[in-house]
Write a structure and sequence with these properties.
Elements lengths: L4 H16 L2 H27 L3 H36 L11 H15 L6 E8 L4 E3 L4 E3 H8 L7 H6 L7 E3 L3 E7 L2 E14 L6 E8 H8 L7 E4 L5 E4 L15 E6 L2 E7 L5 E7 H47 L13 H41 L18 E10 L1 H5 L4 H19 L4 E6 L2 E6 L6 H15 L5 E10 L3 H12 L9 E3 L13 H12 L3 H18 L3 H21 L6 H9 L5 H23 L4 H13 L6 H8 L3 H12 L3 H17 L6 H7 L5 H12 L3 H9 L1
Parallel strand pairs: 16-17
Antiparallel strand pairs: 1-2, 1-7, 2-3, 4-6, 5-6, 6-7, 8-9, 8-12, 10-11, 11-12, 13-15, 13-16, 14-15
Keywords: DNA-binding, Membrane, Transcription, Transcription regulation, Transmembrane, Transmembrane helix
Protein name: HTH araC/xylS-type domain-containing protein
Pfam family, one: HTH_18
């Protein structure tokens, strides 16, 4: 008999090598090795660290409380120094009446300190003993109203705070309490605040209360995992406990820091320099459960190993099966791979499929790019009526399908340039967003960029298709997220044959855009509004006052017309035409006086970036005032009488100012001053006083907490009707309308 021992042994080794080099075996062995390493590491960690877990937990809680104490003590010290710094800037006032201008300055100082969010201040209250007045960041009122209406608390009332003047301490932290606003409907805005009183021994009639957000500083400063946290003072009086803490009876703490066990509860404590004691309570069962968890972990580990083995086997089978099917499908090609791998399947897949896929992908990408480029040029040519040598027929343009052209005009705001983002790049991103939304509904649509600020989408459907309107609303909603940086004007025009007519119709519809900085969808054809111009009398008034440098009257006239334009909701094109009309008159006036007007060139460019009436008012005001200043400087380079009047009004506009008062200060007669002021400035003295006061009032009205009556008094109007009349004459709006427009 022939000897088959050697051939059988060699065959066995060959089969074993084939089996162990397969993808399935390699994957499964790799999973087993990883599982074994992880199990070994976990078992070693459990055995090595189990004995010291409890000590580590106690050490962790001790260190965590120490860090929490340091955070609290540092914060209290910083609040003390910051609030004391405010008191050092106060001037003691014996007069019981309140100076509202000084009050506004003090409120600004309070807000400046509170702008430091690291102090966690909800408010700072300044207490006046002589006047019984309380001032905070946004309002001032008597002490009873402040603590009954705005800071209502069952623990602290107005009498309690009035009693603090007589107490000798200079700094005191009071227990936290719940404060809320209270009115006839009940309590609103409940919050837990920790009052801190700071006194300045040089100002016994004043003290400040820092209202600290107790729950917020706990959430930010505590370094413990459990939320059983307490603060007590030197008299063992509760000062604060965390929101999740239970009401417990705390033991006496003999030492400066440490921990003690009572009734199976760990009390970690540490006393701070402020006299406060910080306590962290951890039940013993919490610590013990963390230690016992290591023993039960063995069972969990066994279960995890079993699940890991099963998952490894199933995953290996799932990965190996499709690979085997691919191999069976491509092995008939019998090509030799350029490199060898320990995994047979990867050798075959890599060298049999990668070249085919790469070649196919390159061809497909090249054809797709060329086809997209050809379609873009074809549509651009037909939309703009660009002729070429081969005629106008092209297979890319369907001749029997209805279509809708959706035009997007992009306008960018100043915020985009602060991000240092290029307009061209931003437009590319917007085009991709638009294309993604449109393709979801209209898969055969085409979106491309026609101009630097113009995007065009071609949708093959009827203009009456309701999905058009739905898609445009989706795009509008998308642009809401980018309203801080840009906005769009969107139009849709349809047809079936003449592409250029539809495109020109869309361009005309873009001109119907209303004057604002929000994304607009224009789908209705409206009659173009006529050019907005001044009447003959108004134009003569405009030219006369421009020539005399009377910017106050010019601005009043321009703002009245702008108010009328805004009310009628004119298009952007009409508004810009009116603004150009004013700028051209201003330029002509400067030319007549041989004054350099080159600065107006930049103004015409900036006008195209004006998208709101506020921006337009700012631009025109700047140009008109600068033009008037140049005229006045030409008339009188440095008139000391006029300069004195300007400076005095800027610093004393809230006082009673008349021609007689100003004449006495200048040691001239009333009639001479009136004539002189009119001749030099082109303005009546009373009109100029009113213009200064109205400009100051507009700034005050931007603060919603200041009443219109108070704003009128602050700028010198004792009669509210007179204030309303002068305000509307100057701005075209009543004070209420002005505030409402600015808040929108």
């Amino acid at each position: 008999m022939p000897n088959h021992k050697f051939p059988l042994k060699a065959l066995f080794k060959l089969r074993l090598k084939e089996k162990t080099s397969s993808l399935f075996i390699r994957l499964f062995l790799s999973f087993l090795i990883i599982i074994a390493l992880l199990v070994s590491f976990i078992l070693f960690s459990v055995v090595y660290y189990r004995g010291g877990i409890k000590d580590e937990i106690i050490k962790y809680n001790t260190l965590s409380l120490q860090k929490t104490t340091e955070n609290y003590e540092n914060l209290i010290a910083v609040i003390h120094s910051s609030v004391l710094a405010i008191s050092l800037e106060l001037e003691e006032v014996q007069n019981p009446s309140i100076n509202y201008l000084n009050a506004l300055s003090t409120m600004q100082k309070l807000r400046l300190v509170m702008s430091n969010r690291q102090l966690y201040l909800e408010n700072i209250l300044l207490m006046y003993q002589n006047s019984g007045y309380t001032l905070e960041k946004s309002r001032g009122t008597d002490v009873n109203t402040m603590f009954d209406r705005y800071y209502n608390s069952k623990d602290y009332n107005a009498s309690f705070w009035n009693d603090q003047y007589a107490l000798p301490y200079k700094f005191q932290v009071f227990p936290a309490s719940s404060f809320a606003e209270s009115d006839s409907t009940g309590r609103m805005g409940e919050r837990t605040l920790l009052p801190i009183v700071v006194k300045n021994e040089q100002l016994p009639n004043f003290y400040l209360i820092a209202m600290v957000e107790a729950d917020t500083i706990y959430a930010q400063l505590h370094q413990t995992l459990d939320d059983q946290f307490y603060i007590i003072n030197e008299a063992d009086q509760p000062m604060y406990h965390s929101p999740g803490a239970n009401q417990v009876s705390l033991p006496k703490f003999k030492y400066h820091s440490g921990y003690m066990i009572k009734d199976n509860i760990y009390y970690f404590y540490k006393k701070g320099a402020s006299g406060l004691t910080y306590i962290h309570v951890v039940p013993d069962n919490t610590i013990s459960s963390q230690v016992r968890w290591n023993f039960s972990f063995v069972l969990l580990l066994i279960l995890t190993i079993a699940i890991s083995l099963i998952a490894s086997f199933l995953l290996s089978v799932r990965l190996n099966t499709p690979v085997k099917r691919i191999i069976e499908g491509i092995q008939k090609w019998n090509s030799h791979p350029p490199w060898e791998s320990g995994i047979n399947e990867f050798n075959i897949i890599h060298h049999k499929i990668s070249d085919i896929l790469k070649t196919n992908q390159d061809m497909h990408q090249d054809m797709s790019e060329k086809e997209s480029l050809l379609r873009y040029y074809a549509y651009s040519n037909v939309l703009k009526k660009i002729r070429h040598q081969q005629g106008d027929s092209t297979p890319w343009l369907p001749s029997d399908r209805p279509f809708v052209l959706v035009l997007f005009k992009v306008n960018y705001k100043a915020n985009l340039y602060r991000l240092e983002v290029d307009e061209e790049r931003a437009t590319v991103f917007i085009r991709e967003y638009i294309n993604r939304i449109i393709v979801e509904t209209f898969s055969d649509s085409l979106t491309f960029q026609m101009e630097n600020d113009q995007i065009l989408s071609i949708i093959f459907t009827e203009i009456t298709d309701p999905n058009i309107n739905h898609t445009l609303k989706q795009i509008n909603h998308m642009m809401e997220a980018e309203r801080e940086y840009c906005f769009l004007t969107i139009t849709a025009s349809g047809g079936s044959e003449d592409w250029n007519d539809a495109y020109q119709s869309g361009l005309e519809q873009l001109k119907k855009r209303k004057f604002d900085d929000e994304t607009q969808i224009i789908v209705e054809t409206e009659l173009q509004a006529a050019d907005i111009r001044l009447t003959q009398a108004q134009e003569e008034e405009l030219d006369a006052n421009l020539y005399n440098g009377n910017d106050v009257v010019v601005l009043q006239l321009v703002r009245r017309v702008l108010a009328r334009i805004r009310k009628s909701n004119e298009s952007t094109q009409s508004v810009h035409q009116f603004a150009e009309y004013i700028l051209l008159h201003t330029q002509r006036n400067l030319q007549q006086r041989n004054i350099d007007h080159t600065f107006l060139r930049q103004t015409f460019t900036e006008l195209q970036n004006c998208h709101t009436y506020e921006q337009l008012d700012t631009l025109l005001s700047s140009v008109i005032k600068r033009s008037a200043l140049l005229v006045r400087e030409l008339k009188d380079k440095r008139d000391h009488i006029i300069h004195y009047v300007y400076e005095y009004l800027e610093n004393n506009y809230e006082k009673d100012i008349t021609l007689d008062i100003m004449a006495d200060k200048l040691h001239i007669t009333r009639s001479y001053l009136s004539t002189y002021f009119k001749e030099k400035t082109g303005n009546n003295f009373v009109d100029y006083v009113n213009s200064v006061r109205i400009d100051k009032a507009k700034k005050l009205l931007l603060n919603p907490d200041i009443r219109i009556q108070d704003a009128a008094q602050f700028v010198g109007y004792q009669n509210i009707n007179s204030f309303n009349r002068m305000f509307k004459k100057s701005t075209g709006f009543t004070p209420s309308e002005f505030r409402r427009n600015e808040q929108q």
